[in-house]
Write a structure and sequence with these properties.
It is a single chain. The chain has strands spanning about 10-15, 20-30, 35-55, 60-65, 70, 75-80, 85-90, 95, 105-110. By secondary structure, the protein is mainly β. It has one domain (about 10-110): Jelly Rolls. Strands 1, 2, 3, 4, 5, 6, 7, 8 and 9 form a nine-stranded antiparallel beta sheet that branches. The chain starts with 11 loop residues before the first strand and ends with a strand.
Length: about 110
């Protein structure tokens, strides 16, 4: 078993092209011995953008921890806020935008 505080995990720029104002912390990954799932904590700063993209073979389970923003699936813009749980099936377009003055933080769980 491993327990650690999120502040003990290195905050890194997210690697997706076109991202603005977004960092990620890999809270649980293969480095900690995980074999099936990774847990990441994203911070999307005010006016931050994760552009529309998809992962052909990877679903996402997302939980908004703090703040609010907009989830765009290419067809509609859906307001999201702290406490919301989101399922993004594999192959579905998705994007996040934070138009507020506060950071938006969300946990994203993906299969390894």
């Amino acid at each position: 078993m491993i327990k650690r505080h999120f502040t003990e995990v290195k905050e890194e720029p997210s690697g997706l092209a076109g991202i603005k104002g977004c960092t990620v912390r890999w809270l649980i990954s293969k480095d900690q011995g995980a074999q099936r799932y990774a847990m990441r904590l994203f911070t999307l700063q005010p006016d931050g953008i994760i552009p529309l993209h998809q992962h052909e073979d990877t679903e996402h389970e997302i939980f908004i921890v703090e703040g609010q923003g907009v989830l765009d699936n290419g067809r509609e813009q859906i307001p999201v806020r702290a406490g919301d749980a989101i399922f993004v099936p594999a192959g579905e377009d998705h994007s996040f935008v934070n138009h507020t003055r506060q950071p938006m933080r969300f946990i994203c769980v993906i299969p390894l």
